Amino acid sequence: MRVLLMLLVLGAASTAQAQDQNYWFQQFGTRSHMLGGSVVGGVDDTSAGFYNPARLAWIDNPELSVSATVYQLDRFFIRDGAGKEREVDALNWRVVPSLVSGIHLFDFAPGHAFGHTILARHYYNNSVSARREARDNVINDLRSPGDEDYTAQITVDVDVQEYWLGLSWAWRMTEFLSVGATTFAGLRIERLLADIDARAVWFNGTAFEATAIENSTYVNYFDLRAFWKLGLALELDDFKAGLTATTQPIHLWGQGTISRDLEILNIDADADGIGATLVLNDRQDSRPTEYRSPWSFAAGLDYSVAPTGTRFCASVEWFLPVGTWTVIRPESGAFFQGATTLVGGSNDFLKVRHGTSGVFNVAAGVSQKFGDWLIGEWTGHWAFYTDFSANLNKHDDAIRLGSTEWDLYHGMTGVSIRTDKSEFGIGVHFTIGSDSVEQNINLDDPTEAGLLLGTPSGTRGVYWAIGVVAGYTYFF
């Protein structure tokens, strides 16, 4: 009986999941953002430190600096996510400081350029909840014929932040060709809190009786890693092309905390008329972490029609699969509180896992110069790009990071205004995505065999966002 309950509860722990599965969710630098990141071949500002460091060698403005911020409203929505007509949704407003970057040229190193980049690679938070109160036949008829007072609630709170600091170098080897590299340090901070509470209460003829399950999971960690982006750039008058490769990281340091508290009270999971109770509680602090990111390879083309002031650009990037790995590995041992004879112990009870598959994304953009008007030269920008999910969904006993598998599609438009000493840009970014998803928790038709929960089924998730991108470039 207790082994059965343990396995059921470990399966339910996978409801603690986050959305962070789309590598191209954010773009960087105002002009590059408004072109949808399709600038690997012809990026012409200091966002090159991220998109293609070799392109820094073609920028001749010393100490040019770029800053950009995204102001975004988004909605996360899963129809019937917790049961019939019980949507799981959230409406969020966030300000994302996407990029600060610059370039430095020195007389003692002709043909060489140096740059710095600070960017928010991932910046995501979401909080969802659902609740049900009803008279329902949940409890085995041997103990309670008829309906019981049933309440259940789920709450999931996710916060993911990842910042990259990069130092770049580029060398223009010939009149047509340059190479470059950026050394990145990536700091990832992730927090996850998930709670499941369900209970049924009835009168047994002489007294009130109750069953309940409480499942609380908490994960909080930071992880520091280093990796490199290598670039090659070709420029032949109005035609430009570029190639990049981003390496897998070297883990530097990280620590995490995992805590779980599970209580199964008076539940008859095998319908023998006898309720069983199981209490498990454990927490481990300062455990070593490892967050992995993939190898990726990108290519881009850029062509300008000089007489018309029109520019066409396109980029692709292939992210290799990483597979499944353990993000936080707890120490093996008995539970701090509760059963000590069950298989697995605290190692399985607290283990945090993640997994990613390979994806291939494409981007295309167009810009058009409109000419000088009032304060400077105006240019319009339009772009579209794909943003496919890399989530590798595995059902096992571990706490899982990552659940959504929907593919996203992005479109944007905006204008930039350039003067002799500066450039200002503002644009609008649209995102939409929808896909079939598996319910994590179903509050309909609960049973004791299902630990006071219903059987999960398939449903559909929708994500949309609209954001304003604003940035400023100053030429020293």
Structure in words:
The N and C termini lie far apart (73 Å). The protein has 476 residues and is mainly beta. It has one domain: Porin (Beta Barrel), CATH 2.40.160. The chain is built from four helices and 20 strands. A hairpin with a 4-residue loop joins strand 10 (296-305) and strand 11. It has helices spanning 2-12, 30-34, 48-51, 345-350; strands spanning 65-79, 88-104, 112-136, 148-172, 177-203, 208-236, 239-246, 250-267, 276-288, 296-305, 310-319, 323-328, 337-338, 352-356, 359-373, 376-387, 399-400, 408-418, 422-438, 458-474. The strands form two sheets. A 14-stranded antiparallel barrel has the order 1-2-3-4-5-6-7-10-11-15-16-18-19-20. Strands 12-14-17 form a three-stranded mixed beta sheet, with no helix packed on it.
Short descriptors:
14-stranded antiparallel barrel; disordered N terminus; mainly beta; 476 residues; Porin; 20 strands
Kindly estimate the percentage of residues that lie in beta strands according to DSSP. Answer: over 45%
**Judging by the overall fold, what is the CATH architecture?**
Beta Barrel
Order of helices and strands: HHHEEEEEEEEEEEEEHEEEEEEE
Task: Give a count of the beta strands, DSSP E runs of length 2 or more.
Answer: 20
Distance separating the two termini = 73 Å
Shape label: elongated
Sheet of most strands: 14 strands, antiparallel, barrel
Question: What order do the strands of the largest sheet run in, or round the barrel if closed?
Answer: 1-2-3-4-5-6-7-10-11-15-16-18-19-20
Q: Quickly count the helices.
A: 4
Can you tell me the CATH superfamily?
A: Outer membrane protein transport protein (OMPP1/FadL/TodX)
What is the helix content? under 10%
Total domain modules: 1
Computed CA radius of gyration, to the nearest angstrom: 26 Å
Kindly provide the name of the CATH class: Mainly Beta
Q: Can you tell me the CATH topology?
A: Porin
What's the overall average pLDDT, rounded?
A: 86
The SS-based structural class is mainly beta
Low-pLDDT windows of residues: 1-8, 10-19
